[in-house]
UniProtKB/TrEMBL annotation:
Pfam families: Ribul_P_3_epim. GO terms for molecular function: D-ribulose-phosphate 3-epimerase activity; metal ion binding. Its EC number is 5.1.3.1. GO terms for biological process: pentose catabolic process; pentose-phosphate shunt. The lineage of its organism: Bacteria, Fusobacteriati, Fusobacteriota, Fusobacteriia, Fusobacteriales. CDD domains: RPE (cd00429). Keywords: Carbohydrate metabolism, Cobalt, Isomerase, Manganese, Metal-binding, Zinc. GO terms for cellular component: cytoplasm. This is Ribulose-phosphate 3-epimerase. The gene is rpe. It is an enzyme of class 5 (isomerase). InterPro entries: Aldolase_TIM, Ribul_P_3_epim, Ribul_P_3_epim-like, RibuloseP-bd_barrel. Belongs to the ribulose-phosphate 3-epimerase family. Pathway: Carbohydrate degradation. The active site is at residues 37, 172.
Length: 211
């Protein structure tokens, strides 16, 4: 442990007909990041929202915009997020040349995250760790909110924490007060939670993740 816990509500589970209010509520109750799941219906079997929505909500909050790109060929799309994202996370599985994609995100002056699907080994990023700000360990298979946390990801988080003691480790998928605690004990310091937070009582839920 050691690093302060960052709580990142995932907008995917918010009321889409009331986004401005939803975002301002989680901000008021202590959220640190706003996690924004961009899905293209190709890399994952679902479509969510894209840069026009992010630009529309950007003026209404000071939260850090943590953009999780679940798109095939992210190099073609990254530029769309240059005016609204603070952190851009790409999936290691979505690009042929991960190191080039990392450099592209950085060329826009953004922090760069790399996400790994549950079955993707840490070896994929071993030689890029010094160039990455954050590693996102997916604790479900990407594409949908409301899935169950995969406990086999806990040793993966531990292994990464040993490999990179200072890096930000984000976990995403099935996070609640119980699974979040296990992830933090394993070494994670950024907790994404969608259905857990947006299912009600935002204040208690956000507080319950600040271990
Ligand atoms: O990236 C994803 C899903 O692919 C996530 O960010 C989900 O939005 C998390 O939702 P919950 O599992 O917390 O409901
Ligand atoms: Fe996500």
């Amino acid at each position: 442990m050691g690093k302060e816990i960052i709580v990142a509500p995932s907008l995917l589970a918010a009321d889409f007909s009331n986004l401005k209010k939803e975002i301002q509520e989680v901000e008021k109750f202590g959220a640190d990041f706003l996690h924004l799941d961009v899905m293209d219906g190709n890399f994952v079997p679902n479509i969510s929202f894209g840069s026009p929505i992010l630009e529309a909500i950007r003026p209404h909050t000071k939260l850090v915009f943590d953009v999780h790109l679940m798109v095939e060929n992210p190099d073609c799309l990254i530029h769309l997020f240059k005016d609204c994202a603070d952190i851009i996370t790409v999936h290691a599985e979505s690009t042929k040349h991960l190191n080039r994609t990392i450099q592209l995100v950085k060329s826009f002056g953004k922090k760069v995250g790399v996400a790994l699907n549950p079955s993707t080994p840490l070896d994929f990023i071993k030689y890029d760790l010094d160039n990455i700000d954050m590693v996102l360990i997916m604790t479900v298979n990407p594409g949908f909110g409301g899935q169950r946390f995969i406990p086999e990801m806990l040793p993966k988080i531990k292994e990464l924490r040993n490999l990179a003691p200072e890096i930000d480790i984000q976990v995403d998928g099935g996070i609640n007060d119980k699974t979040g605690k296990l992830a933090v004990q394993a070494g994670a310091n950024i907790l994404v939670a969608g259905s857990y937070i947006f299912s009600g009582n935002y204040k208690n839920k956000i507080n319950s993740l600040k271990f």
